[in-house]
């Protein structure tokens, strides 16, 4: 059983920390020049408007969201020095689950030799990894679980059209997976300090994939497909505008909650939606280049996977040192936005 009985006094002493990170991207590399062959766009436009140079698209028959999550999880588990059997709970963040139901969490559960543990899907899109981290933190602090796997994984390259009609999404989004092992610690210093979650549903339709949904008698029809209603829709300018104000807001919220300043930050890992958004946030906060990590140039926007992929790369490059103050922040469909502040262990 993965339930730990404890007293109220003990509850005060449990915290959580990330002990392992891993990521996986499909092998199919797609450059901006490749996209030029399918739609009216250009490498120059994509670089200038988003910073993106390339991304990876999944291979049908090989990659699924849950399998990609499993590959990332294997690396994270190995780095944490844990086996799948040690994990008490799975949190799987994705907007592109393998099936409408069941969730990808249970599909991941069968991919690796986990015990018959709980598996929860998180559906908050770009903020999914931070929401997942927050849930993991609460379960660990409450004493219910000791070792939790948080995964963010997406296959998005098959949801948009490779055409001029689909270019709003085609140029921005990519496929990939990242995973983090979150473990109990009793050290009050080196841990997840706090998480901050928000939503504003009145903007739900500004970034949406509406059909097939449960609100129509016929969830899918030829008419809906002809109208392109099975494709995602984004009011790009509106998303951009909200993002550049919500990012700094939720970063300040995390710092204030811990009596810290922007100058205390060692690393900001923003959700990789657009390099211009990250740069605008960096400017507002007056952070130097070496304190903001961006890799959207190489992966595009992988939604729930951007932050764990970025953290994995930072870890691999030995750029996360014990004691570093690390802030994760995200904004996206919902709208939802969120941050997490960590004192790296
Ligand atoms: O993960 C979170 C969710 N997503 C985001 O955070 C994305 C937020 N939004 C954005 O990143 C940007 O709004 C976009 C990258 C989507 C668009 O950039 P923009 O600077 O807002 O461009 P725009 O939509 O205002 O379009 C500017 C011009 C237009 O032409 P005209 O009217 O100036 O002649 C568009 O038709 O660029 C044209 N355009 C394109 N051209 C080449 C729009 N998309 C493309 C394209 N290739 N893919």
Structure characterization notes:
The protein is of the alpha/beta class and 345 residues long. The chain has 2 domains: 9-185, 3-Layer(aba) Sandwich (Peroxisomal Thiolase, Chain A, domain 1), CATH 3.40.47.10; 192-343, Peroxisomal Thiolase, Chain A, domain 1 (3-Layer(aba) Sandwich). It has helices at 8-11, 32-36, 43-50, 65-80, 104-111, 128-141, 167-170, 222-226, 236-257, 275-285, 296-299, 306-316; strands at residues 15-24, 28-31, 54-57, 89-93, 118-122, 147-154, 176-185, 192-199, 207-208, 233-234, 267-270, 325-332, 336-343. A 5-stranded mixed beta sheet has the order 1-7-6-4-5, with helices on both faces. Strands 8-13-12-11 form a 4-stranded mixed beta sheet, with helices on both faces. Strand 12 (325-332) and strand 13 form a beta hairpin. The longest helix is centred in the C-terminal third of the chain and has 22 residues, at 236-257. The protein is globular and about 55 Å long. The two termini are 28 Å apart.
């Amino acid at each position: 059983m993965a339930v730990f009985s404890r007293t109220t006094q003990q509850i005060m002493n449990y915290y959580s920390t990330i002990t392992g990170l891993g990521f996986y991207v499909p092998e199919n590399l797609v450059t901006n020049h490749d996209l030029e062959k399918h739609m009216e766009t250009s490498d120059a436009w994509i670089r200038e408007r988003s910073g993106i140079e390339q991304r990876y698209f999944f291979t049908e028959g090989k990659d699924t969201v849950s399998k990609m999550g499993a590959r990332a999880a294997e690396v994270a588990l190995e780095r944490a020095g844990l086996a799948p059997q040690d994990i008490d709970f799975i949190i799987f963040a994705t907007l592109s689950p393998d099936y409408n139901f069941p969730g990808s969490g249970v599909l991941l559960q069968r991919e690796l030799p986990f015990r018959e543990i709980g598996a929860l899907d998180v559906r908050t899109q770009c903020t999914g990894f931070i929401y997942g981290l927050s849930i993991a933190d609460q379960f660990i602090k409450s004493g219910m679980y000791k070792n939790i796997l948080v995964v963010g994984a997406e296959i998005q390259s098959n949801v948009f059209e490779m055409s001029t009609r689909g270019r709003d999404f085609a140029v921005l989004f990519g496929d990939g997976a990242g995973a983090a092992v979150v473990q109990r610690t009793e050290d009050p210093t080196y841990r997840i300090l706090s998480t901050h979650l928000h939503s504003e549903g009145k903007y739900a339709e500004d970034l949406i994939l509406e059909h097939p949904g449960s609100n129509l008698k016929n969830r899918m029809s030829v008419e809906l497909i002809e109208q392109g209603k099975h494709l995602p829709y984004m009011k790009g300018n509106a998303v951009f505008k909200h993002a550049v104000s919500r990012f700094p807001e939720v970063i300040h919220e995390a710092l204030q909650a811990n009596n810290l300043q922007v100058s205390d930050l060692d690393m900001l890992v923003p959700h990789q939606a657009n390099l211009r958004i990250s740069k605008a946030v960096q400017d507002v906060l007056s952070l130097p280049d070496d304190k903001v990590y961006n890799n959207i140039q190489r992966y595009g926007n992988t939604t729930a996977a951007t932050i764990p992929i970025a953290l994995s790369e930072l870890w691999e490059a030995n750029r996360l040192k014990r004691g570093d103050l690390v802030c994760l922040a995200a904004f996206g469909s919902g709208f939802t936005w969120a941050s997490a502040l960590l004192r790296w262990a």
